[in-house]
Structure formats: structure tokens, C-alpha cells
Design the sequence.
């Protein structure tokens, strides 16, 4: 499957422009608590199939999905597409790229 991708710059721009987008962090709760993008929702990739449809009921919402490196977010995007979500994007290189650009994190 060809995974739709988005860059850290594009995610930051969407946040700065107050675009209507859901930021989805698919790392573990422990990783999330050590730093995440402000306003993001934490749903570990392992729990996605069981819980996401209760959390994000509108499957047409734009979702920017991230993890540490991009591997889990790719897996999550694939799962979300199978569940019927239509506007989902995996952030390339995840928080590694976000941090490399010195973008802010919340604790």
C-alpha cells in the first residue's frame, strides 16, 4: 500500500494556520508523556483498531499521524485507511525530524 505522507514542515504549518486537523500520536503512553506535539491525541498503534472509531467518529477528518521515526505511523495510517478514514497522512521521520527542526514539544 502506498502510504500518504506529510512532512514535519507541513504539519507545523497546519498547526500555525489553525487548520482543522487531528494530530494523532501512535507511540506508547510512556513515550507520549516524555514529549509530544501540543494538542495531539495519544492512541498507541496496538490499540488503534479497538478504540479509534470511538475517539474520532468523523472518518473524513484530516489526520496527521506521527510516532518517533515514521514506522509505526505508517502502520497506523494503513490501518486507518482500512477502517475507512479518508484523509490520513503519516509524518515522514516522525518526532526525529520534528526535533531536528527544533519545533516545540509539550510534556
Sequence:
Amino acid at each position: 500500500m502506498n502510504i500518504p505522507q506529510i512532512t514535519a514542515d507541513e504539519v507545523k504549518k497546519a498547526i500555525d494556520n489553525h487548520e482543522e486537523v487531528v494530530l494523532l500520536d501512535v507511540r506508547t503512553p510512556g513515550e507520549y508523556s516524555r514529549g509530544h506535539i501540543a494538542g495531539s491525541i495519544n492512541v498507541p498503534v496496538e490499540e488503534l483498531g479497538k478504540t479509534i472509531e470511538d475517539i474520532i467518529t468523523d472518518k473524513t477528518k484530516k489526520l496527521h499521524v506521527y510516532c518517533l521515526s515514521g514506522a509505526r505511523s505508517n502502520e497506523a495510517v494503513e490501518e486507518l485507511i482500512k477502517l475507512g478514514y479518508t484523509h490520513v497522512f503519516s509524518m515522514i521521520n516522525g518526532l526525529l525530524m520534528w526535533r531536528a527542526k527544533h519545533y516545540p514539544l509539550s510534556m
